[in-house]
Amino acid sequence: MKLSRGEKIYVALLHVIMILAGLCLGATYTVTKDPIAQQELLQQEADRRAVLPGAATFEEVAIEPTGAVTACFRGLSESGEPCGYALSVTASGFGGDIAMTVGVSDGVVTGVRIGTHSETPGLGAKAADDSFLSQFTGKGGELTVNKNGAQNDSEISAITAATITSRAVTSAVNEAVALAGSLE
Q1: Sequence-ordered alpha helix ranges (H) in the chain
Q2: Whole-prediction pTM
Q3: Taking the chain (184 residues) in consecutive chunks of 10 residues, what is each chunk's mean pLDDT?
Q4: Cβ distance 130 to 113 under 8 Å?
Q5: CB neighbours of 161 closer than 8 A, spacing ≥ 6?
Q6: Core-most of 7, 28, 173, 176, by most CB within 10 Å?
């Protein structure tokens, strides 16, 4: 099939537009990748401070990433004394990975924050709500999920219609508490 002169011009014009669009996307990526990475680091630091409020600074603790725990930071008070751990944890929820930060001090959860997730909006996404996460604060030991509501201090009330997500978050918190306990 032979193209007419007008068709050849349109094909050439489309190629030029595609090349320019590719160059613009590449330039945008190059310009924004460092600021995005910096913002992610700032958010991680803010999450550590939120889950371990007594810490003034954090120092990374070398661990072998196993299971859900991917990184560990020792919190230091204003006087430089250890005051607990902030652990980066990844749980496998219903919709995919759930990135979390868990604070632990003396075997007790001091806070949980969910960073990123891909859980179902209105269901599993409620795991990021304070009404669910606040259940962990002040609890230690092995926690379990109860679909009918927490009956004692070792139980967490499941999110309605999101039991898989509730169990994934609880399991990850349990792993963080266990690892922090082995470091204390």
Answers
A1: 5-51, 130-133, 163-183
A2: 0.80
A3: 87 95 95 91 90 92 85 92 93 89 94 88 84 91 84 84 89 92 82
A4: no
A5: 123
A6: 176
